UniProtKB/TrEMBL annotation:
<dbReference type="Pfam" id="PF19054">
    <property type="entry name" value="DUF5753"/>
</dbReference>
<dbReference type="InterPro" id="IPR001387">
    <property type="entry name" value="Cro/C1-type_HTH"/>
</dbReference>
<feature type="domain" description="HTH cro/C1-type">
    <location>
        <begin position="16"/>
        <end position="70"/>
    </location>
</feature>
<dbReference type="Pfam" id="PF13560">
    <property type="entry name" value="HTH_31"/>
</dbReference>
<dbReference type="InterPro" id="IPR010982">
    <property type="entry name" value="Lambda_DNA-bd_dom_sf"/>
</dbReference>
<dbReference type="InterPro" id="IPR043917">
    <property type="entry name" value="DUF5753"/>
</dbReference>
<protein>
    <submittedName>
        <fullName>Plasmid maintenance system antidote protein VapI</fullName>
    </submittedName>
</protein>
Length: 285
């Protein structure tokens, strides 16, 4: 599957930053070489702004990267082009801060998500999504169809790919918070059970009476295979009301990996979770 432009830029930024740091070159020198200010160099090294292939090759020479195969791989990444129309039509409804996440998600081979309050978007039924949107004061009702269509596209892109592994830990709050009434919740919980039986998908429930403290906020961990021989990119995505953050530093990823391990240990096992979900679905029937 072709890599999205967002992910190509992210890998390019990682490789260029690491090469600069190994060479001991300061960002201000990079800015001078490129004829840019330091702010734009920072954006480039965070994957928010690209490089031309010529500029990439010039910087790699300055960074003393001599391996021709490595240079060719990195310069090729710089040939990123935006996909015209990618965010047109119903996909134009996706907020700017979430568009990068959708691309990262699409190119991931491992997705781990903790849901603290609501059923995560990848697991929602259409009825649940519409009921949730109807309750939101921040969503224009005229946009509901576009949001539903975009969410269903995401689900199909993930759950129809055999190469991806998706794991979810859901706080019992996700199951008990009534969205749209009993019929919608019954359908939603039955949908979770069906997904939990799908190959490559794991769903665990963290019940209220778990000995673990749980977590008050949701987060997503993604693993994206590298387009070169380098290690994969591991990142954590967290969002709030007005913004989103992508954490890819080793300390942050390690902290969230430890948190994920605690959550999965405190949650019910896979078979226990299926039985728990069935019991909740029966209560909504």
């Amino acid at each position: 599957m072709p890599m999205t432009p967002t992910v190509r830029l992210k890998f390019l930024s990682i490789y260029m930053r690491e090469a600069r740091e190994r060479a001991g070159v300061e960002p201000r020198e990079v800015a001078k070489l490129l004829g840019r200010d330091a702010t734009r160099v920072t954006k480039m090294e965070k994957g928010r702004e690209g490089l031309t292939p010529g500029d990439a090759k010039m910087l790699l020479d300055r960074y003393d990267v001599h391996a021709e195969d490595q240079k060719l791989e990195i310069v090729e990444l710089a040939r990123t082009r935006s996909q015209r129309g990618r965010w047109a039509n119903h996909r134009a409804i996706v907020p700017l801060q979430q568009r990068a996440y959708y691309d990262f998600e699409q190119d991931s081979d491992s997705i781990r998500h903790y849901g603290a309050e609501l059923v995560p978007g990848l697991l929602q039924t259409e009825a649940y999504t519409r009921a949730m949107l109807a309750r939101s004061s921040r969503v224009d009702p005229a946009c509901a169809d576009d949001i539903v269509a975009t969410r269903q596209e995401r689900q199909e892109a993930i759950f129809r790919r055999e190469a991806v592994r998706a794991a979810f830990v859901l706080s019992e709050s996700c199951l008990r918070r009534r969205i749209g009434g009993n019929a919608i919740m019954h359908e939603q919980i039955r949908h979770l059970i069906a997904l939990a039986r799908q190959r490559g998908v794991q769903v665990q429930v963290l019940p209220f009476d778990s000995e673990g403290a749980g977590n008050t906020f949701g987060f997503t961990m993604l693993r994206i295979p590298a387009p070169t021989s380098a290690p994969p990119l591991e990142m954590v995505y967290v969002e709030n009301l007005h913004d989103a953050d992508y954490l890819d530093g080793d300390p942050e990823v390690a902290d969230y990996s430890n948190l994920w391990s605690r959550l999965t240990a405190d949650a019910l096992g896979l078979e226990q979770s299926k039985r728990f979900l069935k019991g909740v679905a029966d209560q909504y029937a």
